[in-house]
Specification:
Elements lengths: L26 H23 L3 H5 L9 H20 L19 H21 L2 H4 L2 E6 L4 E6 H25 L19
Antiparallel strand pairs: 1-2
Helix pairs in contact: 1-4, 1-6, 3-4, 3-6
Length: 194
Amino acid sequence: MRNERPQTHNARPESKAVETGDAMIGPEHARTMARYNQWQNESLYRAADALTDVERAADRGAFFGSIQATLNHLLWGDRIWMSRFAGLPKPSAPNIPASVGECGDWETLKRTRAEFDPRIVAWADSLTGQGLAGNLSWFSGSVRRDVTRPLWMLVTHFFNHQTHHRGQVHAMLTAAGAKPGDTDLFLMPEEYWP
């Protein structure tokens, strides 16, 4: 008896195409990812809130060590990119090594994250296809030089960076016995959809 392959169907989107110039992503992608970021952060912070301060600060072998340090770095990264994308204030920590202390205590970190995610959503809502096709220039402290890159690439990096570090936090929370929620994009509740 031979194994039969499941039938596949070519999905053909019925929505109108968005003019993006030379950008490889469109505004709808950014809007969706901004909301996904908010949904996932709410899940991770809810799970981390069930742990003690000692458990959140414990070195768990991740790149930034602990759950809280990684969440601090992630907020720092979001703030540095949003200072470039939208002119928002830069983070208080001056560089990546110091980013793990962006917010000193858990309550401040939670509050700051909850206040910042809607700002990311509002920025994403303002994006246009033509805007994504432009370039962004800035001085990068991590490579110590001026850099110019396509905005669509940097926006993709921004959301990828979030997903990368949230994955680390999710693994640390799970190992600590906490229960973060689903992470699959297609399971994002409708109230988060753009």
